[in-house]
Structure formats: C-alpha cells, structure tokens
Amino acid sequence: MFLASWIPGGPLPALVAGVASHLALDAIPHGDAGIGHWVHSSPNHVTKLQRLLPVVFADQILGGGVFLLLLSSPRLASTGFWILLAGAFGSILPDYITGIRDLLPKPPVWLESLHRIHQKCHYSGKEPFTILTGLIFQAVLVVTFLLLAFF
Q1: Distance between CA atoms of 99 and 17, rounded to whole angstroms?
Q2: Rounded to whole angstroms, how far apart are CA atoms 90 and 15?
Q3: Is 51 in contact with 131 (CB distance < 8 Å)?
Q4: Which of 13, 85, 101, 133 could form a cystine bridge with 129, CB 3.0-4.6 A?
C-alpha cells in the first residue's frame, strides 16, 4: 500500500508494484518455509487442504485487519481507495496463484509457469528462522510499518 501511494498512474501500476514487492520480499528469509514444507508434505489432497485452509484463513484475517488499519493512516489518506486496494491485492496475488494451483488436481501449464516464477523468487539458502521466530520477525515488521504509517 505504501508503494501504491508513491507510484503514479492509478490502480494498474499499484497492482504491479504490489506483485513486485511480494516477489522481492520473498527473497528475504521470513520463517514460513517450515509451514510450506508441512503443507506440501501432506500424504493426500484432503490432508493438504486441512493443513492449508486454516493457515490461509488466519493469514487473510490478519492481512485484512492490517489493510483496514492502513486505510485510516494519515500517510495514505491522500491516495484513492482503489489504488490502495490494487496495491494490497497485488501484494498477495502471487500467493493466491500458488493457492489456486495447489487446489487444482491438474493445473494448466500457464498456472504452473506463474507458480515456478513465484517459487524462484523465494529465499533458497538455509532458513535462519524457525516457524515461531519467523512469525515473530514478521510481526515486528508489520508493527514497525504500522507505526510508520501513523506517526
């Protein structure tokens, strides 16, 4: 949403900036590799969904809450709602593409290609965080940006 407020041109550039920021931030280790491994090591599709859906639900609730908080930020007040929404949606779009791919028994080739691009952007070294320390790291970053948005 911060990028969306700085990029001129309306919702489409904001969406692209959101996608680009997601892919760039995926290159920084942030502790979710263990969650991804746990989900993708499922023995079957049903177990995978049972593991994936609660994580997605919690992620969406928290993301929606941050989005609503940022809508009331004085730093973003001069940016239109649709531009902010486009930036926010762009920032989660790569994960939605991967999620849709994971739900399909046989994803189309173009969806597999988009997923591979997303996967190549992820940090590929030794993960320095456990799931818990990664969640703490992400929470500290979110709180920091919320503080920057309001003060």
Answers
A1: 20
A2: 4
A3: no
A4: 133
